[in-house]
Amino acid sequence: MGKAILSGIIASMMISGQDEDQIYKPKKFIACVSREESGARIKKTFNDKVTLLVGENVKGVNEADIVFLCSKPQVAQSILTEEGMIQALENKPLISILAGVTISQLEKWVPLTTKIIRAMPNTPCMIREGMTVIGCRNDVKAEDKDFASWAFSTLGRVRFLDEKHFDAVTGLSGSGPAFACVVLESMADGGVMMGLPRDIAFELAAQALQGAARMVLQTGKHPSEIKDTVTTPAGCTIAGLLTMEDGKIRSTIARSIQEASNVASTLGKIQSKK
Ligand SMILES: NC(=O)C1=CN([C@@H]2O[C@H](COP(=O)(O)OP(=O)(O)OC[C@H]3O[C@@H](n4cnc5c(N)ncnc54)[C@H](OP(=O)(O)O)[C@@H]3O)[C@@H](O)[C@H]2O)C=CC1
Ligand SMILES: O=C(O)[C@@H]1CCC=N1
Fold first, then answer.
1. Atom of ligand 2 at shortest distance to CA of 175?
2. Nearest CA to ligand 2 atom 8
3. Strand ordering across the sheet containing 67-69
4. Rounded to an integer, what distance in angstroms lies between the CA atom of residue 62 and that of residue 82?
5. For ligand 1, is residue 2 a contact (CB within 6 Å)?
6. Closest atom of ligand 2 relative to the 260 alpha carbon
7. Cβ partners under 8 Å of residue 98, min gap 6
8. Do 207 and 221 contact (CB within 8 A), yes or no?
9. Taking CA 63 as the corner, what is the angle to CA 60 and CA 64, rounded to the nearest 5 degrees?
10. What catalytic activity does the UniProt entry give for this protein (predicted)?
11. Closest ligand (CA of 37)
C-alpha cells in the first residue's frame, strides 16, 4: 500500500506539474523498508524519483516533514520505538494506514507533539480509483488534515469519519476490493460455463460491476432501484436474482464484512518485539 500511495502522489504531480495553483508540491520522497529485496522493488518502480533507505527508519523520519506509516500493524510498535525515533518524530504529522492500530495506541509510542492522522485506503489507490477514509483527534491542525486529504485525493475519493468507524471501514472498503474480485470471478465463471472465452467473461463482468457501481455513485440512486430497472417481469434477471437469494448471497457477503471488521479490530493487539 505504501508503494501505491507513493505512485499515486508522484503520478498526480507529474500530471499537474505545470499547474501553478497546486497547493502542495512535495520536493522529495523517502521510502524506508527493512529488507534489501523490498528495496530492490522500490528502486525498480521509482528509480531516482524516490530516495530509498533500507534499515534506516530514524534517518528517513529525521529528513521528512510528514511521515506515512505503512508497515504491517504487528511491527508498528517496534518501528516507532526504535532508538532516536521519538526525537525524529517531534512536531511532525504521522499518517498511519495500519488496520486495527488505534490513535490511542499510537499516542503511547510517539511524542506528544506528533499529530496522528489515521487513514484507511484501499488497493484501487494504485490506479487512482481508491477510497480513503481519514480520522483524527480534534486537536490536529487544519493544515495537517488538509495535507492528508490532498495526498489521498490524488489516489481517489476521500472522506473524513470518526475513528469509531474504522474497523467497519477496514472490513468494507479496505478489504472490499478482494470481496468484489470474488464476485467478479464468480460472475465470469458463469459466463465461461455458458461458453464465453475467459478473457471476454472477465471484461464483461468487470465492466458490469464498474458500470453498476458508477451508477450508484453518480446518480445517488438506491442499488435496489438500479436492480429493479434491469429486471423485466418474467425475464431472465429475476430468474438469476432468485437463484442468488436461494444461495443466501446477501447475508453471506454482509457477514463476510462483519467478520473482516471483527478481525480488523484485533490486528493492532499483537505487537512483535522486533
Ligand atoms: N493491502 C491492503 O489492501 C491494505 C493494507 N492496509 C494496511 O497497510 C499496511 C501494509 O499492508 P501491505 O502493503 O499489504 O503490506 P506489505 O507487507 O506489502 O508492506 C509492508 C511494508 O512495510 C515494510 N516494513 C516492514 N517492517 C519494516 C520495518 N521494521 N522497517 C521499515 N519498513 C518495514 C515492508 O518492507 P520490508 O519487506 O523490507 O520489511 C513493506 O514495504 C498494513 O498495516 C495494512 O493493514 C490498509 C489498507 C489496505
Ligand atoms: O487484510 C488486511 O489486513 C489489510 C487491511 C485492509 C485490507 N487489507
1. 7
2. 175
3. 67-69, 93-96, 115-120, 130-136, 156-160
4. 13
5. yes
6. 1
7. 69, 70, 71, 72, 73, 76, 267, 268
8. no
9. 85
10. L-proline + NADP(+) = (S)-1-pyrroline-5-carboxylate + NADPH + 2 H(+)
11. 1
Q: Work out whether the CA dihedral 104, 108, 109, 114 comes out positive or negative.
A: positive
Encode 158-194: b = buried (16+ Cβ within 10 Å), e = exposed: beeeebeebbbbbbbbbbbbeebeeebeebbeebeee
Q: Which atom of ligand 2 is nearest to the CA of 73?
A: 3
Q: Note the pLDDT tens digit of each residue in 243-255.
A: 999 999 999 999 9
Protein residue whose Cα sits closest to atom 3 of ligand 2: 99
Which ligand lies nearest to the CA atom of residue 271 in the structure? Answer: 1
* Residue position matching grid coordinates 516533514: 65
In this predicted model, what pLDDT tens digit does every residue of 25-67 receive, in sequence order?
A: 888 999 999 999 999 999 999 999 999 999 999 999 999 999 9
Q: Is 208 a residue whose pLDDT tops 80?
A: yes
Q: Do you know the residue count of the chain? A: 274
Pocket residues: Cβ below 6 A from ligand 2: 99, 170, 174-175
Judge whether residue 16 has pLDDT over 80. Answer: no
Secondary structure tally for the chain: helices H, strands E: 13, 7
Q: Count Cβ atoms below 10 Å from residue 31 Cβ, excluding itself.
A: 22
Q: What is the position in ligand 2's atom list of the atom closest to the CA of 264?
A: 3
Q: Is 111 in the pocket of ligand 1 (CB under 6 A)?
A: no
